[in-house]
Write a structure and sequence with these properties.
Shape: globular
Largest sheet: 7 strands, parallel
Structural class: alpha/beta
Number of strands: 7
Radius of gyration: 18 Å
Order of helices and strands: EHEHEHEEHHEHEH
Amino acid sequence: MRLAVIAGPPSAGKTAVVRQTVRALQDRHRIAYLKIDVVRAFEDEELAAEFGIPARKVYSGDLCPDHAGVMVMRDAIAWAKAEGADLLLVESAGLCLRCSPYTTQGLGVAVLSAISGTNTPLKMAAMLALADIAVVTRIDLVSQAEKEVFRERIREVNPRLDIVETNALQGTGMRYLLRAIEDCPAITDPDAIVLRGAPPLGVCTICIGKTEIGWQHHFGVVRRLEGADYLYRGD
């Protein structure tokens, strides 16, 4: 079975990319789909109704959605295998631009919207730095100059990243992504799968319920206003 993790900011077009992928590959592959979200999600119901594929969702609730994704990934692989799938598509909640939910033995796909602003790729450095492919959606809504600037911003973060530009609603320009998914090596040992990079720390006194504002009231991982300009620089 192959694994592809689709990540990106909210409303970037992740589900549209997934929908076009399922539509194009369903005749050749048995596809399973997992959506990770925080409070509510409907994508699994929509894809199951439209394509008849096994689909389910996980709500992270009080937990970081990307941390929740790491915790349920092994179970998700076992579930998809039990469903007879040979391709598992995992769509992240995409709320933390610092997180990078990609794993070994899988394909990492970052989805970005061309109308989100030309500096958006620089704001999601970790998500792009460890991805295999960047899929830029809504290219029909921007000029050629804006597309070129957006592409160069992606290159600033990861010069080796393959870039796919698409109108995901219509499925144009998706052939390279589809080929990459089909050419991705299959999982060989689920127990050996690990994250490609370290996620941000998720343990501090705020995490355990303290509500006071100001670093003076907290301990562990804290951040002051002065000296709070640390930037992600890659693994």
